[in-house]
Structures are given as structure tokens and as C-alpha cells.
Amino acid sequence: MAAKIRKGDKVVVLTGRDKGKTGEVEQVFPKEGRAVVGGINMAVRHVKQSPTNQGGRQAKALPIHLSNLALIDKNGKATRVGFRFDEAGNKIRYAKTTGDAI
């Protein structure tokens, strides 16, 4: 299945405790259907000290399910993603609200 949400996309959270917050996708896990969004779904993890890390309690962004995310179009609103072919025959993503290519 084609990826509707990819790394670097601006997304908005649709449900959960972070509903309405926006962020950028940092990592996507296609097999699990989840993505890590910067500053969203944060949790505190206790990290052991190492030569490169001070250790202690550190905030970490945990993965969130893709069904709880929506892409943001050029107007700053949540949109669904569709696929179509351009003049050159390449498959592209487009925002269903505005019809613009992403």
C-alpha cells in the first residue's frame, strides 16, 4: 500500500490527549501502522548514564497510530490524501480538500 503519510510531513492529531496539536513526522513504521511525531505523545523514560549521555528522566516521543493523524494542507487544515498520475505518468499524492499536489 502506498504511504499516505511520510517522513517530513506536517500532521495534526485527530484523537487522544494531544488532539489538535501539530508536528512534523520524524519516523514512520509501515508494518505497525504507526509514526513518531515530534513533540506529540511524549512520555518520560528513565535512561541509564553513559559516557555520551547524562542519564536521568528524559522525555521521548512515542509512536502514534496513523489513523489518528491527518496531513495539513496549504491552508493549515486537516485533509485526506489521494493519489493520481501527473502528465509524466508519475504517481503523486494530493490533498483532497484543495486538490493540490503534496
Characterise this structure.
The protein is an all-beta fold and 102 residues long. The protein contains no helices and ten strands.
Please specify the SSE layout and strand pairing:
Blueprint: E1 10-13, E2 22-29, E3 34-37, E4 42-47, E5 56-61, E6 64-65, E7 69-72, E8 78-79, E9 81-85, E10 91-95
Antiparallel strand pairs: 1-2, 1-7, 2-3, 3-6, 4-5, 7-8, 9-10
Q: What profile does the largest beta sheet have?
A: 6 strands, antiparallel
Please state the CA-atom Rg, rounded to the nearest Å.
17 Å
How many strand segments?
10
User: How confident is the prediction overall: mean pLDDT?
Assistant: 92
Strand order of the largest sheet: 6-3-2-1-7-8
Distance between the termini: 18 Å
- The helix/strand order is EEEEEEEEEE
**Segments where pLDDT lies below 50 for 5+ residues?**
none
Number of helices: 0
